[in-house]
Amino acid sequence: MWNFDFAISYADEERGIANDIYRFLINKGATVFFSNNEKSFLLGKKLKSKFSSVFSTETKFVVVIVSKSYRRKNWTKFELNTALFESINRQYEFILPVRIDDTALNGLDDDICYIDFRKEGLIETIDLLYQKHQEISDQETEPTPEYWVLCFGVGSDE
To answer: Which end of the chain has a smaller Cβ tally under 10 Å, C or N?
Structure first.
């Protein structure tokens, strides 16, 4: 159903942390969109159009690496706004913020629970992200139809 389990939204200044998160999630078996590794895939594409779908309908979770740099950049604002708009359609926590400093982001509620990378470190951050993935995956089930239609074949022997 999803092209990606996670899409990582980050400012270029936090590329190293984003790359570490990407590598560890991949090692756990997740599919992850990390734009730094998608250069040939993105080449020639209209980025606003592609990122609009990647940070919304193509992805199960968006991991936002929250920092001063993130708040200043136009692209990260675009990615966050795309994810915020999509979050309205989700029945679960779609945006998973990872804080690397005390920056607050417009659009994210003041009481949203963050992962504090400074306290948790890389391994615990990955474990928490992956646990959230597993929790939501366990809750997702195929919908049961309200009506069952039973069809019997009627045919001729001709």
So the answer is: C
Quick: pLDDT tens for 100-113.
999 999 888 888 99
DSSP 48: H
Give residue 94's region: left, alpha or beta (phi > 0; psi -120 to 50): alpha
Counting other chains too, the contacts that 68-73 makes at CB distance below 8 Å and 24 or more residues apart are 68/101, 68/103, 69/11, 69/12, 69/13, 69/14, 70/9, 70/10, 70/11, 70/14, 70/103, 70/105, 71/103, 71/105, 71/106, 72/11, 73/11, 73/12
Q: Whole-angstrom Cα distance, residue 82 to residue 51?
A: 8
For 47, phi and psi rounded to 5 degrees? -65, -40
